[in-house]
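Researcher: If convenient, please comment on what follows.
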Amino acid sequence: MLAVACVVPVSAQDGKEDGSKDKSYASSFFKVGIKGGIDFISMSRFELGYISESVSNYTGFTAGVAFSFDMPLRGMTIQPELNYVSKGAMYRGENPAGGSEDARFRTDYIELPVNFQFGLDLILLRPYLMVSPYIGYAVYKDPGIVSWDNTNRFEYGIGIGGGVDFWKFQLQVKYNWNIGQLARNTDRIEAGGAVRMGNYRGLEVNLVFFF
């Protein structure tokens, strides 16, 4: 951001006296967009009460806003976002009565990723690679029987992927790794169930529309 602050005044001075170039530069330098997509989440290890570790992928959703800044280095863009992200796990295990039971654990987050994009400017397309550190805070969980006291609401991690810009659209595909444990107390399980181990990871696919 310090580099951006240094470059903007210099670029503005290079424009025409009537300011026409300044306006064109500003419109291409910064963009705002809305985004939406789906994620395919799995867990490294998961345990909820009496249910065993038979875990399958969970399909969630993402929605939010994106802010794109073009950097002085050609083809490089910094794109912070503010997103609502649904994550979870589907699993099956034996219940105390001896039968099997399907269940779901879901946690929704407010996430702030910062996407560092390195692309190649072509005539109609801009393919790019992307590294995305992120932080988030859990605002919803299901089932409600799992206590917030035993769950880490704060999350942090990193995503790696790529995509392509075309016209006013941007396609994103990345794989995210949450770092740390989802559970606070990994050595005990309360009656009624509590998340014991593991954290979220998975593939995320989004489409962004810039105004």
Observations:
- The chain has one domain: 31-210.
- Residues 31-210 form a domain with the Porin fold (CATH 2.40.160.20).
- Helices lie at 2-13, 20-29.
- The longest strand covers residues 100-119.
